Amino acid sequence: MERCLKYPPSKFLANIGFIFWSAILLAPCADATASGVENPLAETHDHERSRRPWSTSGKYTAHKNFEEHFVSGRRLAGLVAPKPLVLPYHNGPILSRMNNVTKLYVIYYGAFTRIQRLTVRRFFRSLAPPRHRARASIPTVAKWWEITKGYQDVWGESVAQLLIPSGEIEDKSYSRGRTLDQRDIEALLLKLPHILSNQGFCQEACGQHAYLYPSGATGGQMLPYVWVGDASTQCPGLCCWPFANLNYTFMENSQDKPLLPPSGEVGVDGMIINLAKLIAGAATDPYQNAYYQGDAAAPVEAAEACSGIFGCGAYAGYPGSLMKDPVTGSSFNSFGSRGYKFLLPWMWDPKTFTCAGQSHQSTNSLQFDLNLAC
Q: Signal peptide location in the record (predicted)?
């Protein structure tokens, strides 16, 4: 087992477990004991829940024209400049690694199509910095994840930048039933890294990140994890927006019709959005005592602080200016490996105190700077 930087090695697991509920699992590095996290008899703690997709708290940043892909966006005139958005650091551990690596393990619980599994794999593979860096004018998944490099712990170490897919398990037979509670999730996680949607899915959350305390089953390590559910048939308006209409009718300024998803499947592209939010939350606030705003029991974390923002000019019910595939008509804002396309939520950038879709370090030209005001 690899050692975790600056924290007792017996307390961490250098992996993240993901469970995809017809769900994902992820396991990183952080010490609950060193950071003062209480252990309620090895009970899991729920963290970020993907909330209402139209919440637009905080200041959002710019999205300049990127070749012929962009769709013209609407703007709202601001009368008063918004205050800088701040997610205070509460001195807890983040998912930092001595070798800058976090291993990802995935469990598919239930029936997933080939396209769905491929889309998830492509997203994970796209998180790692490519051998040949894309030019500054091209937004990529890797440069989106690079925003987390600005999140540092008390030792000055940043969130691990190399997220490596390291294993998958498929459970097509729903071995623990079609409704999972927290104990079921724990049991799946201890099988491998895994987790599924739980009883609050579509009612309270689109996904969740939490953790298991050290035990013999986890090799004495902390085990952070993420679960995300396929909401395409149950609550697409809540968990798949903007690829589905909002469930609420009071949004007068909401877009006229849903956007087309890059993969062609609303469910999996909705999962990618929620997965991206939760990975960012799990990496920057794995134990509910690192980077967050508000109440620790219901923290607003990295991407949650920018909820509903996917491009320049975003406001309630409108995701912002996006790129559009000229062939399929699908909307996206980031390129992945081999040119695959994804729509990723913006997250809070601690370097600029704004919401951003790409790392400010990735944009050397003001002409293409994603962090300029619209």
A: 1-34
> What is the number of other CB atoms lying within 10 angstroms of the CB of residue 365?
10
CA–CA distances in Å: residue 167 to residues 95, 100, 107, 291, 347 = 19, 19, 9, 28, 27
φ/ψ (deg, to 5) at 328: -90, -20
Structure tokens at 126: 């796209």
CB burial of 178-190 (b: ≥16 within 10 Å; e: otherwise) equals eebebebbbebbb
At residue 317, the 3 state secondary structure works out as: coil
Q: Do 173 and 8 contact (CB within 8 A), yes or no?
A: no
Query: In 3-state terms, what secondary structure has residue 157?
Result: coil
Q: What is the pTM of this model?
A: 0.77
Q: Is 38 exposed, middle or buried (0-12, 13-18, 19+ CB in 10 A)?
A: exposed
Q: Which residues pair with 106 in a beta bridge?
A: 18, 168
Determine the Cα–Cα distance for residues 55 and 307; give it in Å rounded to an integer.
5
Task: Report pLDDT for 13.
Answer: 40
- State how far the Cα of 66 lies from the Cα of 139, in Å rounded to an integer: 9
Q: Are strands 354-356 and 347-349 parallel, antiparallel or unpaired?
A: antiparallel
Contact criterion met (CB below 8 Å) for 189 and 219: no
Gap between the Cα atoms of 374 and 111, Å rounded:
42
* CB neighbours of residue 229 within 10 Å: 31
Bond preceding residue 224 cis, omega within 30 of 0: no
- Provide CB contacts within 8 A for 42, sequence distance 6+: 212, 213, 215
Report the pLDDT value the prediction gives residue 231, as an integer from 0 to 100. 84
C-beta of residue 290 within 8 angstroms of C-beta of residue 93: yes
pLDDT at 269: 97
SS3 state at 197: coil
Q: Which residues of the chain have pLDDT under 50?
A: 1-14, 23-79, 192-198, 249-253, 363-374
